[in-house]
């Protein structure tokens, strides 16, 4: 067994000094674990660790190459098997603006090909009742949707997700569609179940959690042999519901539906959403946990992903000791078979063997243990995902281990938010306000902390050893820094990374509470014309630099002069740079106040704003003439309770 990740991180993270927070983040721990016997499912104190600085300086044992190990693993599989498309079972987010092919397969709902490998290949709960209880020695419980409906209505839908399933878009027009996607009627071929998993919540082991209101209908295989799980969120009680009702309200369902699709269009790996349906019934919720519950319209989102497996899916079985440790291996084999097939039967390769220190035993060969290769790939995918979040200013809000996908997807949109005024300590979750554990600046460290908990479970099941755990952690840090530096370099249009310039920029933005999205979009309008007078250098940024005095103007002018000096030697024209910067700096993000406007209209029975907002967010990098209002700064009313700060109640 090994100790939890050694970098300090708590509700008042000592690793987040003021300078570190403003530099976002100057340090990402590269762990040098101190190994000891412990219970990984209880909160532990951690020790100091070495760090990787923003200038790319790594610990001595870091790999000499910062390229992705998981890419090397896939390439080896590609060469070995002569497969032209080794990513057919992985998520792609590079087809944001693809048009629907006229020649593609278009199926009716009854023609979807259901496979349901999860319930076929994994051990299930012998009981099928809904009584809240511990579910032992099982990965799932078979359970059907039980939500009550009364004239359910289709609020919104995603044509691009329908395309993933080969589903004919005309199917959305069916009068029985809302009944089918509330679960009131079941499609033939489905095998509904709720998944069993556990997790660390706010740093503490919470035991069994599971799908308390999400019911997976099954898996659809499309014409490309891609596997897509369809899951109804808010469809009723399961054995994992504990004291809850298993339902969801329109407010939270709109937010999840819109953000799932908005994140995909931003190019960020995420679960998707096929449709959003009202139930026609009301659900009682105490939104602020202040003793003032109210009735809200009920709704259900149909979520779609290759898999909804989480870190907690493995943690729960490892936490139960020897009787369930075999399930960790069984579930790992299942994930590798269906979602990481390139890790099967790897051949010996010097390029995938690494020294982790001094001595003959300080050696990791990823080709000799598929579980180690798998852990490294998950670490890298997670690091890449978090780096992308930081790039667009997205804050998840509830980064518990049960909300972390083993596929490296953004999953479980509860309280979330995009940065408006730049604030490294921003959190969209009122529950997190006392310590801001999951604030924007903490996300990189939290990702590493969560990877450590996942790796602990694999180690407990004897799938990976201590050196392999160390290496997975190390790869997280290296991959995050590589991706984050590349993203920030592209955001400001530089040919190479400049630590000082980016750090100073983020400090200035934090001091003046500059709008994160609008600033980077405006920055592309800067001209490298040496004849521009000094007092006019800030003109392209004036819409973002509001109400700043002379001292701050001088600070910004100084930064712009340094920026222009760096640009002048790049050899890139202003036009080329603007095109490149605009392709990575979105004009439109799903701001909380935009969501709230759509929610207010929908709760009055008008769904058009939800649909309009979806269309805008499908093209976040385009100018979209006539839609400029969706790029505006939040109005004053956006800062009232319940708009920019949201609890977990949904």
UniProtKB/TrEMBL annotation:
Its cofactor is Mg(2+). One of its GO terms (molecular function) is nucleotidyltransferase activity. It comes from the Eukaryota. Keywords: ATP-binding, Magnesium, Metal-binding, Nucleotide-binding, Nucleotidyltransferase, Transferase. Belongs to the SELO family. HAMAP family: SelO. This is Selenoprotein O.
